Amino acid sequence: MRRLPIRLRTSSTPPPHAAALRAAVTVTVTVAAATAAIPSSRRFGGFLGYRDGLGSLQRGLGESLRLPLQQQQRLGFLTAARPLFPSTALNTPHSITTTTTTTTTTTATTTDSDPDTPPHLPRLPYRFDTGIALFAKRPPRPFPPPFLSPPSGSFSDALSTHDRIRDRRVYVDGQLIRGFTNGDDAVLASDRFICVDDGVGAWSTRPRGHAGLWARLILHYWATAVFEDAVRQGEGGKPNPIAYLQRAYEQTVEATSAPNDWQGTTTAAGAQLHYRQAPDRTVEPLLYVTNLGDSQVMVVRPSTRELVFKSTEQWHWFDCPRQLGTNSPDTPATCAVVDEVPIREGDVVLALSDGVIDNLWAHEIVDKVSESVSRWRAGDAAKGRGLTSDDSEMGFVAEELMEAAKVIAMDPFAESPFMEHAIEEGLASEGGKMDDISVVAALCRKN
Questions:
Q1: Where is this region: Disordered (predicted)?
Q2: Are the C-beta atoms of residues 254 and 201 closer than 8 Å to each other?
Q3: CA angle 44, 46, 49 (to 5 degrees)
Q4: Contacts (Cβ under 8 Å, ≥6 apart) of 83
Q5: Are strands 337-342 and 171-172 parallel, antiparallel or unpaired?
Q6: Environment class of 58 (CB within 10 Å of its CB; exposed 0-12, middle 13-18, buried 19+)
Q7: Most C-beta atoms within 10 A of its C-beta, which of 56, 374, 432, 445?
Q8: Which DSSP category does 25 fall into?
Q9: Distance (Å, rounded) from C-alpha 189 to C-alpha 180?
Q10: For 45-104, what is each residue's pLDDT tens digit?
Q11: Are 447 and 125 in contact (CB under 8 A)?
Q12: Helix or strand or coil: residue 358?
């Protein structure tokens, strides 16, 4: 749980939002959410700001609201009618630089039928084999209206499914929402794009705060922009990562504006797989890494146990990263950084939330990934783990890395990167940092 930047500490002007949505009907809904503990003053540093009318921090998070919703609650609350990008938007140049906790652990792998990997994309010379591993420090809040799953149509299912954390019957612009939610984090793994969005958990103290929703929506729109432009440009098109994330940010602002008015902020880190022609005229994989905030993308070469690349964290100050959302001055167009990273077949690309990098140093991550790859290929991974035929190499790598970070996070006497950075800032700190831990691991291979 981290601090939330605001434009002006004394400002009473609400952040910019898009125009009100089309005609709506009024329905009565009840928002019920568990009350989260108020973070320490050290974490918040007196820097939290409110818009007028938010009310006291002590107000319960459960309240009855009358929210105007459109007649097509899930299919029409955004501007799906206009194209995602103007015809020239993606061709513009962009800059490229060369306590008590409840836990949930989940692993998953993507397949060709996964909705996060659309089947109609143009074929690339290379692809990702992916796996994810998730650990939530507390159960995520259910998505609020109008971002609810529709009721089940079968007596064999629960009558309402909106409380299923990873239920895919959540619609945005008529599409099933992409990715997975992990506490306040959101992750996505496809055969050409992976990302982690880390929602700032301090929004859980706000009656209308929902960082997990912001993280998931930006992830959904981000991936949608990547895939739609790939289809539009065809196999030889060059990606424009800043335009993708900027558009995702703008659409999330619109989706969470009045009458919905759900507040939150999130970091964003993603890696898009592409290719380029090498000097000897062969084709080699090329990674476009986009980062805003303190989540990270790393490239590990298990064959040499080498860290090939690590993105740079972005901070306003310690424990307050750059972030997209309510009251934040940061935008992708002004703050996001893109790196073009040549990689090789067999490299492992990682998208990590700060739950990993605050608890493990970079060399520990490299060692754990390299060791996990070696164990899997030697056939030792199944020992004591109960793995099945559905498990994958990258799923195993992701889970091993998540477990290593969790061990440190839960150890009050461990030495951790977060503890070291806090001491450098003159703050008393000891042990690991309990946080949502999200890992996406992707193996680059020929398609």
A1: 88-120
A2: no
A3: 90
A4: none
A5: unpaired
A6: exposed
A7: 432
A8: E
A9: 9
A10: 323 333 333 333 233 333 332 233 333 332 222 323 334 444 334 444 333 333 333 444
A11: yes
A12: coil
